[in-house]
Amino acid sequence: MTSSYVQRDQPEGVPPLALTGERTLPDVPEENYWYRRHLVVYEWIAERVRGKRVIDMASGEGYGSDVLGRSAASVVGVEANPEAFEHARLRYEAGGVRFERALVEEFAEPADAVVFLQTIEHLQDPDATLEHFRSIVGAGGAVFVSTPNVLTLAPKGAERSDNPWHVHEYLPEEFERLCRRHFQRVELHGLFHARKLRVHELALRGGWDRVHKALGVTEPFYRWFTPAIAASDFALRAGPAGRLHRALDLLAVCRP
């Protein structure tokens, strides 16, 4: 699949990746909302894996592994896609971070924590994958899993979004049940808009879409607004599932 959006300003010798919709990328201004939405979760997890051995499953472009590597004792980014793997290896592999090209269902190096973000919705057999992750971390480890909330991702009244890469999109209660089938302790969190994204959300409810179109400022406004979004414009809040129906994404912290 080709894309008109390609990463800008990559380090010398690092091939840029094109945006296909399968994964998010930094250094693409038009993608900044989604990149920051994912980045804030990696940063939250990084504070909780300090000094630990971490596997970042389905590591994609590699930015998340790099964030985790700033606090973890070691990080292995596991990625099957050859272009993404090569990009990550060339751009981020330093210090305690390395990348392995492998399927997440097969990579089995022991670790204290497994991170698996925005990918379980792509799987045909999520139960087998979660069971595999549980075996990797053992009795004292943790598995961090996130997925979009279908209630906010799909159009109103639709059962799912039109993302062609997704096999199944989860309701909060459904996602919690999936995780609890494999882990004794599951802490559920939801990701919400904060700061200027919350203001923008309220403005949309008040009719901002009609206003910017009528004034003819749509393109210049969003050309400024989207690249200005920061990770701090999102916030994680703890569950339970019944209170997370308006969450953008769901994050489960799972322990055997």
Which helices and strands appear, and what pairs or packs with what?
Elements: H1 32-46, E1 53-57, H2 63-69, E2 74-78, H3 82-92, E3 97-100, E4 113-117, H4 126-137, E5 142-148, H5 150-153, H6 172-180, E6 185-193, H7 195-205, H8 208-215, H9 218-228, E7 234-238, E8 249-255
Helix pairs in contact: 1-2
The end-to-end span amounts to 39 Å
Query: How many domain modules?
Result: 1
Indicate the radius of gyration in whole angstroms.
Answer: 18 Å
Strand content: 15-25%
Give a structural overview.
The chain is an alpha/beta fold and 256 residues long. It has one domain (29-193, 235-255): Vaccinia Virus protein VP39 (Rossmann fold). Helix content is 34%, strand content 18%. The protein is built from nine helices and eight strands. The chain has helices spanning 32-46, 63-69, 82-92, 126-137, 150-153, 172-180, 195-205, 208-215, 218-228, and strands at 53-57, 74-78, 97-100, 113-117, 142-148, 185-193, 234-238, 249-255. An eight-stranded mixed beta sheet has the order 3-2-1-4-5-8-6-7, with helices on both faces. Strand 4, helix 4 and strand 5 form a beta-alpha-beta unit. Helix 1 packs parallel to helix 2 (63-69). The longest helix has 15 residues, at 32-46. It is globular and about 55 Å long.
